[in-house]
Structure formats: C-alpha cells, structure tokens
C-alpha cells in the first residue's frame, strides 16, 4: 500500500468521525468505552474525537507533517509492536498513525482501560480498505518484533527495558506538565490554565500537575476562577478522590488551599494526586530556569505566557491540542521508524 493511499484512508476516517452521530458502529464503541472506563465521559471522548479529527486526520496537517521526512516508502516493512496506555480516550492513536504511515506492520497490545476507541478507529480504516487488517493487528503478547514503542509507568518501563533489550525501542515513562506564572496573567489566561489542569480529569501527561508562582502570588484568585469546573465533582470517582485527599492533607497537617473542586498543595513533587494541584514559590527567574532544565526528563510540556530563556513553552490553555509533529517525550517517532 502506497503512502498516498494510507494518508487518504486517514483523511476518510476523519470525515466519518466528524459524522459519528450518524454512525452506529462509532456510537457503539463510545458506549463500550464508557462502560469499561468511567473516566471516559461523553465530554472527554468528544474532546478527544475533535482532536483526532482536526489534528490527526486533517489533510493539510498530514501533508505538512509528512513533508519533513524522506524515504517513507518501505520495500521491506518491519514488525513494530505498540504497547498502549489507557489513561485518556484515544491515547496512543498518534503511535498507531505514525507506524501505519511509516510503511511498517503494526502489532498492538491494548490497555484494558481503552480497548474500544482505537479498535473502532482501525475498523473504520479497514472498512475503507480491507488490506488494513493485514497491516494492523491486535495481539496479546509481542513476540518476534523488530522494534517496540511502549508507554507505561516508571515501573513497567523497567520491565519493558529488560524484555525488549535486544531490539530498538522507545520506552515512555511517567511525565507531567508544569506551568510557570508571574502574576500578570489575565483572567482569560488563568482560564486557559484551568483547561490544562482539568481536561480529562487531569489524568494525561500533558495535564498541568504543578505550577511555579512568584512569592506573594494570590492563589485565591486561581481558586475562584477554577470554580468554573465545579461540575467535575458530580463525577463519583473524581469526588471520591477529592474527599479522600482533602481528609489526608488535613490529618497530615499539610499546607493547602481548596475550593469545592480542587486542592492546591504546597509540594515540590511534580506528580499530584487526582483533584489536586501542586504549587511551589520561586524568587529568582534564572534559578527557576536552571531548575526547569534539570527536570526536563520528567516534564512533558512547559506552559507559560511569560518568555523563558532556553525553555520552550506553550501558551496557557494549549496543552491538550498537540499537533502531529508534537512527539511525546520529544522523541521523533517517525525518524525512529525510518531508521529500522
């Protein structure tokens, strides 16, 4: 199958997803995904669908992305294994699309947390061209692979490193995103930050889990604006996490502030609990930049409307809109596949 054919399949899938309300197979997959994972709400699935349609199946963006690479037609395709996560809807779809367009064969080990949405996407591809089923397949175990791209926790990464030590790999570990504020942010910018924090209940690696703020910063202003996401506590699992963490922090006499839907905890750690956001004060911007550079291997995205020397940042409110060329962990997956 030629590259142009593969690309056109993705474009057609995007068109069908855009009309998903009229497609029973898509509706059925969404229903199944929600029943298997209660974090997959209608709002979060719709948000993820919109991202896939407008960013990953968009002809103009596909052409822009592919134009950066040479030798995309493979005379001898390799078998590439994918181990997908399941923390947010459609997570891993970028890897599926990348391997497909690279000309290699894809063997997917799905997460139990999301075994409906991406299979539905691939089924749509197969309906457009039945040859897809020979190129993308679901497997229980990855054996005889020429390369593997695996996403998991820090613990599972150690297992992946050992198990696949004899073949080329990309092993992704836990990452978090952070925001840097200086106090000059408008209400609109703070609402953008709220989107970075709350989208997908904060479960994604591109969600902001920690903010760096100057001394004297008014956190109560953030709490007030963040109340626009108060509806999240109507979700049972989110509310249970909020209540549990609130109780734990009280018992431990931690320093924190809270409204009815999020807890701001003063903590140096990057990873925060569900319904919590860590904060840390800074005095000197140069020292902060050095610190942020030191923890680059743990950070997925830096969010800030303030220019930071040597630190590439995204504007507040944009973390959940990655483009095809925004690679997880900053590792060019396409380049990796082209060298196989």
Notable characteristics:
Aldehyde Dehydrogenase, Chain A, domain 1; six-stranded mixed beta sheet; Aldehyde Dehydrogenase, Chain A, domain 2; 13 helices; 340 residues; 11 strands
Describe this structure in words.
The chain has about 350 residues and is of the alpha/beta class. It folds into 2 domains: about 5-175, Aldehyde Dehydrogenase, Chain A, domain 1 (3-Layer(aba) Sandwich); about 175-305, Aldehyde Dehydrogenase, Chain A, domain 2 (3-Layer(aba) Sandwich). About 40% of the residues lie in helices and about 15% in strands. It contains 13 helices and 11 strands. The chain has helices at about 5-20, 25-35, 40-55, 60-65, 95-100, 115-130, 130-135, 155-165, 185-200, 220-225, 235-250, 285-295, 335-340, and strands spanning about 80-85, 105-110, 135-140, 145-150, 170, 175-180, 210-215, 255-260, 265, 275-280, 300-305. The strands form 2 sheets. Strands 8-9-10-7-6-11 form a 6-stranded mixed β-sheet, sandwiched between helices. The chain has a 5-stranded parallel β-sheet with strand order 3-2-1-4-5, sandwiched between helices. β4, α8 and β5 form a beta-alpha-beta unit. α1 runs antiparallel to α3 (about 40-55), α1 (about 5-20) runs antiparallel to α5 and α1 (about 5-20) crosses α6 (about 115-130). The longest helix has 16 residues, at about 5-20. The two termini are about 20 Å apart. The mean pLDDT is about 95.
């Amino acid at each position: 199958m030629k590259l142009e054919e593969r690309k056109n399949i993705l474009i057609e899938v995007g068109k069908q997803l855009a009309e998903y309300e009229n497609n029973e197979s898509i509706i059925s997959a969404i229903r199944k995904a929600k029943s298997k994972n209660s974090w997959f709400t209608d709002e979060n699935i719709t948000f993820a669908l919109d991202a896939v349609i407008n960013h990953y199946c968009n002809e103009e963006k596909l052409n822009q992305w592919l134009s950066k690479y040479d030798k995309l037609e493979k005379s001898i395709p390799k078998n590439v294994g994918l181990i997908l996560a399941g923390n947010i809807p459609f997570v891993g779809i970028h890897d599926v699309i990348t391997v497909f367009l690279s000309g290699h064969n894809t063997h997917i080990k799905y997460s139990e947390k999301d075994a409906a949405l991406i299979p539905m996407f691939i089924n749509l591809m197969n309906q457009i061209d039945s040859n897809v089923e020979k190129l993308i397949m679901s497997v229980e175990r990855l054996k005889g692979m020429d390369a593997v791209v695996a996403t998991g926790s820090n613990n599972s990464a150690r297992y992946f490193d050992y198990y696949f030590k004899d073949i080329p790999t990309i092993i992704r570990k836990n990452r978090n995103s952070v925001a840097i504020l200086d106090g000059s942010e408008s209400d609109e910018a703070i609402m953008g930050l709220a989107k970075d924090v709350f989208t997908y209940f904060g479960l994604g690696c591109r969600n902001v889990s920690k903010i760096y703020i100057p001394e004297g910063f008014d956190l109560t202003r953030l709490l007030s604006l963040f109340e626009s996401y108060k509806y999240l506590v109507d979700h049972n699992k989110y509310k249970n996490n909020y209540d549990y963490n609130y109780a734990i922090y009280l018992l431990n006499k931690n320093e924190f502030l809270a409204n009815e839907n999020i807890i701001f905890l003063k903590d140096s750690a990057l990873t925060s609990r569900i319904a919590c956001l860590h904060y840390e004060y800074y005095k000197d911007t140069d020292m902060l930049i050095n610190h942020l550079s030191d923890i680059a291997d743990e950070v997925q995205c830096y969010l800030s409307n303030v220019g930071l020397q040597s630190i590439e940042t995204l504007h507040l409110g944009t973390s959940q809109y990655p483009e095809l060329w925004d690679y997880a962990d900053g590792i060019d997956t396409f380049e990796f596949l082209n060298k196989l």
